[in-house]
Design a protein that fits this description.
Length: about 160
């Protein structure tokens, strides 16, 4: 099943800027990107990983770093809804971010909780050849912390990947 309505080998370049953490099926999307890229085509990907201080993308109303690591999704949803429901665009914000599963449970559907570890697995499973990969620290002074795999997940500001078909 095609996801992207373009012929094979159509694009020279694809840019996924701050998108990877929002894709429902990142592996399928990357497969489609590979399909529509021309031979020697380049894909640029950058995104903040989920364990980033504001990786849950709730800072428009909840400005607490790593809030998504300290509180349950249920509590965050309740708080988010009560924070935005009286705003002129409150219903739109809620509809954009929150869905209900088959059991009637609400969840944040606009974010896929893409961690660095998960991204690296998805990229490894893709056909792209890595040209460049970098974890950018929250602050330059924190660069040495990124050498520790566990801490890298929490102190990375942005993942940057450039791949070639």
């Amino acid at each position: 099943m095609l996801l992207i309505c373009f012929d094979n080998n159509y694009f020279d370049t694809i840019i996924l800027n701050d998108a990877m953490e929002h894709l429902k099926d990142p592996k399928k999307v990357l497969n489609e990107c590979y399909r529509v890229l021309k031979k020697e085509g380049i894909i640029y990907i950058n995104f903040p990983p989920y364990n980033h201080p504001f990786g849950a993308h709730l800072s428009d109303t909840i400005g607490i770093p790593w809030v998504h690591l300290f509180f349950s999704e249920k509590l965050l949803i309740q708080n988010y809804k009560s924070s935005v429901e009286s705003l002129p665009d409150g219903k739109n914000r809620i509809d954009l971010r929150i869905s209900t599963d088959e059991n009637g449970n609400e969840y944040f559907s606009y974010i896929n909780k893409m961690t660095i570890k998960r991204f690296e697995k998805v990229i490894k499973q893709s056909d792209f050849n890595k040209m460049y990969y970098e974890s950018i620290p929250l602050k330059k002074v924190l660069a040495p912390v990124l050498k520790i795999p566990f801490l890298k997940e929490y102190f990375t500001k942005m993942i940057v990947f450039i791949g070639k078909k």
